[in-house]
Request: fold
Amino acid sequence: MNQIVLAKTVTPYLTNDEAAAFLRLSPRTLEKHRLNGGGPRYRKFGRRVLYAVDDLETWANARCFENTSAHEPRGAR
Reply:
């Protein structure tokens, strides 16, 4: 975990695996979000996918809820 915290000071970008570890998600979950939408913003440099730490934090902070009734599952409308 220290490497990930330090990553923000060393480089503002994380690979898919590093971003998944930062968010405590599986790398496959981030891949699915890229395909289906709804995930954090990412950047493409050729074939390489990178995530800005600030974008990961913004995406995670947008998913804060006070209780379970405050969260409306996707497609519930």
In short: The chain is about 45% helix and 15% strand.
